[in-house]
């Protein structure tokens, strides 16, 4: 925790701010003893009220844990009681009130005996008393029972008497570290503490305890309801799940029995991983997209082909298409139609014997979609009154669809509600809009020019200062970025010196800063870089060929020329060369003129104006892509080379290269006639 706090304070992990929320520290709070959880709830609530914040920060929680740890490890306050309480004799209970549940009819197929059911219960994940997803040691209903009854329950389910968390070992072999939060004993946990349970707090219990012992939620018992639904308190529903035989084509002796879901909303047939293991299918996994109500999900899975699906009566056999591996197939066995569920409805009584009994050894392994269209065709249908279930005869057998609970006594215990809010701007959202939302719509009016205001003021002849009324006027362009002083200077230079020559080529100057530093003669730097480039090209023949080809094309197109001699002490600049490859164009090199290479503390880009950013914004480009159905992109080859440099500025673009583009010849001076890729103002 100290490391987390230090990392959070450093600030290089902004995601740790999640620890300042209730959900962020909940996994840590869950690991604390129950009494410390209650104490933190009281301490945190008080801190929240006193400081007027939504939740205490992580540093407050860390200080609380350190204080409690220091208090509980202080040897000065460790007390041992010397008075031994007299043992209380346990009187045998002659009469115990045991709740009795009477079920008139039980139709759920349970082939396992009681010992087998109890052996599969994990008391650390599911309470064996209430069959709820909470640990037995945290079950309040179990804690409120007498000690002897608690021991009988543990013995009945073969649970460890020491930790109450496993059925794999006995108490004498248990190595789990336990502590009773009520007496600090290391021999039993709080759930097995003798005596009555501690008084509960008035705060609502956490969700993991389930609230199963509440007496206010007593369910009304109807004898007819147990005929179909069994012991549960939830309704029984059936869907299109049918028992079939599946085997590889030509190997009927390898057939396996399984349940298949018939789903006409799926365009492909799916199979669980257990299906592939059952037939020992090996192969590579292929990606595919799974589209559900939750959206699109990228999934990978194996594929299986060449299988035959057969009805139970062996009267129909159909070839299956290629099956995709998917473990998201629903696996709710309570929705499998059974003859008992159909026999208790008058209109379905005659087809009850045509539905096979529930096969406890067959798992739901297949989902057959529209690519096996014949299995979805209805040959006969039996309807009933109102909302009663109905039956359909398919090529693979009969299925029952609907709520088969008698008299509609049971209702679903869980409700899934998907609610969507529509915001003021028309956008959908899962978050509830603020009730205090205020929408302000302002109508902007253009501000007249200041010269017009001056003329109006002078014409009025009034002494009242009305010019100040226009200083803070709003315009529709207020949200746009205003050009800087350098940007306006750049535009002035281009407006005055940018022109079209006799060859219909656009000519522009180099936008120098004013004032600027005089550039030194850096010919020695360019020469050293050229020698380094020569050694590099000598080691890479392929790159050398690409480099010479680029220079040959540049010279042939007239983008560069042989530089004339310089006058005495004339200002100039030499550009070093280097080559780069595009990741998607490994056979095409681009020669870059390094305008950023410094010499004596200055480079060419240091004395040039960058110019305004006139490129299209990323948001604007994306909006254009969304506007129409088809988008087209294009690229202009040698875009910067289409603009000619003013002749008086070409000496600032000089470079050294070999005569006639032959590296065996002498080195001469060239200069660029066009704007180059490495200059900072070129994009503008």
Automatic annotation (TrEMBL):
Top-level taxon in the UniProt lineage: Eukaryota
Region (Disordered): 191-217
PANTHER family linked: DOUBLECORTIN DOMAIN-CONTAINING PROTEIN (PTHR47331:SF6), PHD-TYPE DOMAIN-CONTAINING PROTEIN (PTHR47331)
Name by which UniProt lists this protein: Uncharacterized protein LOC106511844
